[in-house]
Design a protein that fits this description.
Blueprint (H helix, E strand, L loop, with lengths): L2 H18 L22 E9 L10 E2 L2 E2 L4 E4 L4 E5 L6 E6 L4 E8 L2 E6 L3 E6 L5 E6 L9 E3 L2 E6 L3 E6 L5 E6 L14 E3 L2 E5 L4 E6 L5 E6 L20 E3 L2 E5 L5 E5 L5 E5 L7 E3 L3 E5 L5 E5 L5 E5 L11 E3 L2 E5 L4 E6 L5 E6 L10 E3 L2 E5 L4 E8 L16
Parallel strand pairs: 2-7
Antiparallel strand pairs: 1-33, 3-4, 4-5, 5-6, 7-8, 8-9, 9-10, 11-12, 12-13, 13-14, 15-16, 16-17, 17-18, 19-20, 20-21, 21-22, 23-24, 24-25, 25-26, 27-28, 28-29, 29-30, 31-32, 32-33
C-alpha cells in the first residue's frame, strides 16, 4: 500500500469508528462541544473579506495567508493566487495557475511560492503575480514553502526535506528520513534559525540541517514510537514549529511538547502532551492544542502549565496563535475564538462563515488574517476602546 493510501486509510478508519459509535452508547461524547456563552471583553472588528477560489473542505490542505510587509498573499485549492492590500483588502493581482494547490503561499525575496498537488513548486513575482518558474519537487507537500536567502525549503509527505534555488527551482540538496508503516496525513512546517533549517518527520525526529549544504547538524527523537500496533506507534511531528530567539518548540502526535536548543538539539524541557497541530509561541508562552481539542498554554521558560481551556473539545480547533493580549483559534464551524493569553478565558468570538477553518490564523503587523476551507479570507483587528485624553488647549495668548 503506498503512502497516500496509508494516510487515507487512517483517516477513513477514524471516521468510521466515530460514525459507528464503537466507543459505547454515549454518542453524545463524540459530538463537538456546544459553544459556551460568555460576555465579550475584547472588541474585534472585521476590516475586509474576499473570496479566493475553490472549496478545500475535508482535503486537509495547508493553505493560509502570508505577508511581506507590503501585501497579503493567499491561495485557493483550485489554483488561484491573489495579493491584497493589508488594510483595505483591495486586490493587487490575481493569477490562475491551472493546477490544484496543497500548500502555501511562502513569501520572500520578492517571490511568492505555492505547492501543487501534482508535485510541482510554482514561483510567482510578488509585485505582479507573473509566473517565474515551476519545478518538480518529487511529491505532494502539505507544508508551507520557506524562503531563506537563495533557498526555498520544502517538505513533502514522503518524508523528504528539499532545498531548491529561489531563482530557477533547481534542487540544491535533499534529506530523507525513514517512514513508519502508518503515518498521519500532514507535514511539519520547516523553520530557519540563522544558517540552519529545522523540521520534524513522521518517525518522530526533529532534524537540523545546514541551509546551504543540507549537512545534518543534529537529530533529536522528540516523539518516540511506543505500543504494539502501527496505530499505537504513530509519532508524527506535523503542524507548526515555533522559534523564539535560539530556542525551538515542537510537538509530536502521541508524544511530547518540547523546547530544544537550536544550536545543539539539546532538549531544554518537555511535557507529555499529544498534538498534531504543532505549537506556536510568543515571548512568554508556548501554545498548543491537544488531539481532543483542549487548548494548553505553557511557560516558555520551563514548560510549566499556565492554563488550559476545554471550550472547544472535539470542535477541531486550529493551533492557537498569539494576537495582542489574546490567542486566536479557528474551528470546524467557521468561528474564530479569542482567549485571554493570561488565563485562557474566552474574551471574544466572530464568525467568518459556515465553512470550517482548518489552518491557523496568521498575524501580520497588528492584524489577524483568517482563511476558511471554502476559500474565503478576512482581516480583523482589535478595537481599542480606551478613552483618549483630550489635547491641551494651547493658544498664542498663553505665551
Amino acid at each position: 500500500m503506498n503512502r497516500f493510501l496509508q494516510k487515507a486509510a487512517l483517516l477513513a478508519a477514524t471516521a468510521l469508528l466515530a460514525s459507528c459509535g464503537l466507543f459505547g452508547d454515549k454518542d453524545e461524547e463524540l459530538e463537538p462541544k456546544e459553544l459556551v456563552k460568555f460576555q465579550p471583553t475584547v472588541k474585534i472588528k472585521r476590516l475586509w473579506s474576499a473570496k479566493l477560489g475553490g472549496d478545500a473542505e475535508f482535503l486537509r490542505v495547508a493553505l493560509r495567508p502570508a505577508g511581506d510587509g507590503n501585501r497579503i498573499y493567499a491561495a485557493s485549492q483550485n489554483g488561484v493566487v491573489s495579493a491584497f492590500d493589508p488594510k483595505s483588502g483591495k486586490q493587487a493581482w490575481r493569477t490562475k495557475l491551472g493546477v490544484d494547490l496543497t500548500a502555501g503561499p511562502g513569501v520572500g525575496e520578492g517571490r511568492v511560492l505555492v505547492a501543487a498537488k501534482d508535485g510541482f513548486l510554482v514561483c510567482l513575482d510578488a509585485a505582479t503575480g507573473a509566473e517565474q518558474w515551476r519545478a518538480d519537487i518529487g511529491g505532494e507537500s502539505l507544508a508551507r514553502p520557506i524562503v531563506a536567502g537563495e533557498n526555498v525549503v520544502m517538505q513533502t509527505i514522503d518524508n523528504r526535506l528539499r532545498a531548491v534555488s529561489v531563482y530557477d527551482g533547481r534542487q540544491r540538496w535533499e534529506i530523507e528520513q525513514s517512514t513508519p508503516a502508518l503515518t498521519m496525513r500532514g507535514s511539519a512546517n520547516p523553520v530557519v534559525v540563522g544558517s540552519t533549517v529545522i523540521s520534524g518527520f513522521d518517525n518522530g525526529r526533529l532534524v537540523a540541517a545546514d541551509l546551504d549544504s543540507g549537512d545534518i547538524g543534529w537529530e533529536s527523537l522528540l516523539s518516540p514510537p511506543s505500543g504494539r500496533s502501527d496505530l499505537d506507534r504513530l509519532s508524527d511531528i506535523d503542524g507548526s514549529i515555533a522559534v523564539v530567539g535560539q530556542d525551538v518548540y515542537a510537538a509530536g502526535y502521541q508524544g511530547r511538547v518540547a523546547a530544544v536548543a537550536s544550536e545543539s538539539g539539546q532538549v531544554l524541557w518537555q511535557r507529555d502532551i499529544s498534538s498534531y497541530e504543532g505549537v506556536s509561541a510568543d515571548w512568554n508562552s508556548v501554545y498548543t492544542v491537544r488531539d481532543n481539542g483542549e487548548i494548553v498554554s505553557l511557560s516558555r521558560r520551563d514548560g510549566t502549565e499556565a492554563w488550559r481551556n476545554s471550550d472547544l473539545l472535539r470542535r477541531e480547533p486550529t493551533l492557537p496563535v498569539a494576537f495582542h493580549t489574546t490567542v486566536a483559534v479557528g474551528d470546524l464551524e467557521g468561528y474564530v475564538h479569542f482567549f485571554s493569553n493570561l488565563n485562557g478565558n474566552a474574551v471574544a468570538r466572530v464568525k467568518l462563515g459556515g465553512a470550517a477553518i482548518s489552518n491557523p490564523p496568521v498575524v501580520v503587523a497588528n492584524r489577524l488574517y483568517v482563511q476558511s476551507d471554502s476559500g474565503s479570507i478576512a482581516a480583523y483587528e482589535v478595537v481599542d476602546e480606551r478613552p483618549r485624553r483630550a489635547a491641551p488647549d494651547i493658544s498664542a495668548d498663553d505665551s
